[in-house]
Amino acid sequence: MPTKAQIKLIKSLHLKKFRNEYNLFVAEGSTNVLDLLNSPFRLQWLFARESWIEKFDERLQDVNVQQVSGKEMEMMSSLKSPSEVLAVFKLPELPDFNPNAIDDYVLALDSIKDPGNLGTIIRTADWFGIKNIICTRETVDAYNPKVVQATMGSLARVQIYYLDLEKVLSEIPTNIDVYGAYLHGDPVNSIEKQDKGIILIGSEAHGISKDYLSLITHKVTIPTFTKGKSGAESLNAAVATAILCYEFRR
Question: Domain check: are 54 and 136 in the same one?
Fold first, then answer.
């Protein structure tokens, strides 16, 4: 059973400043927790309902799991309908990102604010085998509980960096192309592509910052089929990312 101090600390981790202070984050739900348990992430605490422990007993042989009641889970959870399992993990220690060692596609995110969008983008990167995402510091925290929930376990397989994007883009080798997603650009399905590069996605509201324009080698767009007709003005950032990832992997 969790102590009052544990419950208080776990609830505080819903805020970024306390995640950074304690170097911890919360994951909820079977898929998230099981994938993170089977990864280099270091477990701090694991709390679960009796039914969940019984169901996954064979996968918990070397794990210290504390059984909790529904009421206790509700006190710790950030979800409206708490799941049967909640875990607290250490924030990861990532290797330095080396712009000169890019040998595959990398996603770069400029000020993505919506937690659901970021979580879905991380999950999309995982699906397409993209292992690294660079975020501007204005992008929502990847360890926000809503982001973690939306990744559905993909956080265990994708490395998320918060860096000075302008500095990174200015340091990459000249043979690495930077593809910026715009409403007006070359159709992404018709351009010649390398087998590596940076795919830059702008914010939901403002697109890509002008600060990066001179560092982009190709402005690309996803063609619309409603030209000359009334239709959607733009695509959701996560949906656009999925389409672009497919086109670059295709």
Answer: no
